[in-house]
Amino acid sequence: MGQVYDVTVIGGGVVGMATAMALSNRTELSMVVLEAEDHLAAHQTGHNSGVIHSGIYYKPGSLKAKNCVEGREAMYSFCEKYNIAHERCGKVIVALTEAELPQLDTLEKRGKANGLVDIRRLTAAQVKGLEPHAAGLGGIHVPYTGIVDYKAVVATYGKIIQEAGCEIRTSSRVTKVEHAGGNFILQTAKGEVQTRAIVNCGGLQSDRIAHMCGVDPKLQIIPFRGEYFEIVKEKEHLVRNLVYPVPDPRFPFLGVHFTRMIEGGIEAGPNAVLAFKREGYEFGDISIPDLFQYGTYIGFWRMVLKFWKTGIGEMYRSLNKAAFVGALQKLVPEIENKDIHRTGSGVRAQALAPNGALLDDFAIEEADHMIHVLNAPSPAATASISIGETIATMAIKNFGLHVK
Ligand SMILES: Cc1cc2nc3c(=O)[nH]c(=O)nc-3n(C[C@H](O)[C@H](O)[C@H](O)COP(=O)(O)OP(=O)(O)OC[C@H]3O[C@@H](n4cnc5c(N)ncnc54)[C@H](O)[C@@H]3O)c2cc1C
Question: Maximum Cα–Cα distance for the chain, whole Å?
Answer without folding.
Answer: 71
